[in-house]
Amino acid sequence: MRKLLIAWVSLTFCLPAFADWVSYQRNANSEELYDNQFLSRQGGLVKLWTLTEYTQPITSLEGQELLSEKFLTAIDCAARKIGSEKVMKYAERRAEGKLISTMDTMLRMTSVRKGSSDEVLIDRVCQ
């Protein structure tokens, strides 16, 4: 019985956690979403996952088709700046299916353009 309980607990922690994606911008070619469960919020700095889903497959630099890209995003609410630390490209929507590529990047915070999807995201997240 104890082995069964240990196996069940181990399996529970190994199952993937599904994000609570919230749409914040949509156009004819893509939809942009963010995970409602922030990774961290320290003062005015917020870290969260954002997702871009494409209506039609696009071709990656690796020559493979993808339907979604997930970004580890940092937002400085006070300075109204945004940046990404990681990009992950997936064959399916909702960051599912085959992982085509992943890239860690140095975080560079940039100011957002007025009327951009980044501005919409900051307005939602930094309330």
What is the percent of helical residues?
A: 10-25%
What is the terminal-to-terminal distance?
Answer: 49 Å
Number of domains: 1
- Average of the residue pLDDT scores: 87
**SSE order, as H and E?**
HEEEEEEEEH
List the total number of helices: 2
What's the shape? Answer: globular
Please write the CATH class name. Mainly Beta
Question: What ranges have pLDDT less than 50 throughout 5 or more consecutive residues?
Answer: 1-16
Q: How many strands in all? A: 8
CATH topology: Lipocalin
In percent, how much strand structure appears in the residues?
over 45%
Which architecture name does CATH use? Beta Barrel
Structural class: alpha+beta
Largest sheet: 8 strands, antiparallel
- Rg, Å, rounded: 17 Å
Structure description:
By secondary structure, the protein is α+β, with helices and mostly antiparallel strands. It has one domain (18-125): Beta Barrel (Lipocalin), CATH 2.40.128.710. It is built from two helices and eight strands. It has helices at 2-14, 117-125, and strands at residues 21-26, 30-35, 40-42, 45-59, 65-76, 81-90, 99-104, 110-111.
